[in-house]
Amino acid sequence: MAGKMKETSKYSDDSLSSFNESTGSLNRSYNDISEHENGIYVIVRSRPLSTKENRASEPSIVSFPGNGRILVEGFQTIGGSNGPKSKLFSFNVVFEPASTQEDIFQYSGIKKLIEMAAEGFNTTCFCYGQTGSGKTHTLTGPPGMFFNKRIEPFSADHGLVFRSFMYLFRLVQQRQDLHFVLKASFLEIYNEKVIDLLNPGTVRKPLDVRWSRKARNFYVDNLFMVDCEELDDLQAVLEEGMKNRTVGSHNMNECSSRSHTMLTVYITSEQQISEDGVFITKQGKINFVDLAGSEMTKKTMSEGKTLEEANNINKSLMVLGYCIASLSDPKKRKGHIPYRDSKLTKLLSDSLAGTGVTLMIACISPARSNASETISTLRYAARAKKIKTKPVIVMFHRRFKVFLDNY
Which residues partner with 263 through β-bridges? Predict the structure, then answer.
């Protein structure tokens, strides 16, 4: 497997710095993540109306007043009483339908997240939203780009993950005072089973999620990790995992993610701070989490295996929603938080209310037919924005003693 990943070609230093910037439509009261941020940083991305929705003359129910706000109008409450309703939400940044993949990278706060991971923080970027709202597109780009010929490194379709890889390697090259070691893993949670996407095997044997008393967090036992010395090593991890992840088709999405996925880059840096051999080592990481979309099974017309998948997806998202609701309430957050009720919340527990830094990207559809799911996603995101965390750097120091023989 590792040998297979090494077959890709090498990129020059120039290629890392020549990724084109673009200007799209951004509703930006833009405030980047800062070292003082003590909560989940939440942004919203609205996709354009789809071809199917335009063909059906579906109206858009969302508008963008500015200053990080999004207005949802013309939707009906349960029972449709008292006519159409409207609701105004406010977030850190809101991206309008015309926003490009490069806009998301430049203004979402992901660059600061990468910098903090390189400094020793545990960071997470996760996408949430209904099926077909653009989560996978935002993180990794169109799914088709991983199943055909080799990926074009300068494609405008690239999502946050590949763009983040390029930015991370630029940082590593600039910090000549530090020695960096990068590793990566890629897993999926399918029907409440954790599968290693880099080493799935023919039977896709599930891995155990265990609690570490020493680190005081959950981890996946025997998860395969790849040493990443070059940019194309990370690209190969992305390609391999995307080819192995579970996807399916239903009435709302031709290429629907049937599992939650988590790609993690582990960043260890070492710096000598004194001439007598004292070194400081920092251990950070960044998780890229693509949550499977919430589904209304009547609309997706799921049945059989697809229905079982949908039920498991919705169940884990309900647990995640309950955790977020509890953490966002000052009275409830001191009580029991049910992280152990799903594999997803176990692995996200540190990101949600621990020592990490988290960026949430809420993806929505502007179509009226998806109004209830859009409102639900925005309410979910608004609750997440209230969660407070206490980021810390994972760091330790050691001393080398050098003995020289005298002849």
Answer: 186, 288
Task: Say if residue 177 is exposed, middle or buried (CB neighbours under 10 Å; 0-12, 13-18, 19+).
Answer: exposed
- pLDDT one-digit tens code per residue, 35-93: 445 679 999 999 999 999 999 999 999 999 999 999 999 776 655 556 668 899 999 99
Structure token pair of residue 253: 């999405």
Alpha carbons 23 and 35: distance in angstroms, whole number: 27
* Paired tokens of 176: 């000549």
Instruction: Please answer whether residues 46 and 98 qualify as being in contact, where contact means their C-beta atoms are separated by less than 8 angstroms.
Output: no
What is the three-state SS of the chain? CHHHHCCCCCCCHHHHHCCCCCCCCEECCCCCCCCCCCECEEEEEECCCCHHHHHCCCCECEEEEECCEEEEEEECCHHHCCCCEEEEEECCEEECCCCCHHHHHHHCCHHHHHHHHHCCEEEEEEEECECCCCHHHHHHCCHHHHCCCCCCCCCCCCCHHHHHHHHHHHHHHHCCCCEEEEEEEEEEEECCEEEECCCCCCCCCCECEEEECCCCEEEECCCCCEECCCHHHHHHHHHHHHHHCCEEEECCEEEEECCEEEEEEEEEEEEECCCCCEEEEEEEEEEEEECCCECCHHHHCCCCHHHHHHHHHHHHHHHHHHHHHHHHCCCCCCCCCCHHHCHHHHHHHHHHHCCCEEEEEEEECCEHHHHHHHHHHHHHHHHHCCCECCCCECEEEEECCCCCCCC
Predicted confidence (pLDDT) per residue in 217-266, tens digit: 899 999 999 999 999 999 999 999 988 887 644 344 444 467 899 999 99
Which neighbouring-strand residues pair with 42? 360
Residues listed for the chain: 407
Question: Can you give the pTM of this predicted structure?
Answer: 0.84
Residue type, 122: N
Q: Is 222 exposed, middle or buried (0-12, 13-18, 19+ CB in 10 A)?
A: exposed
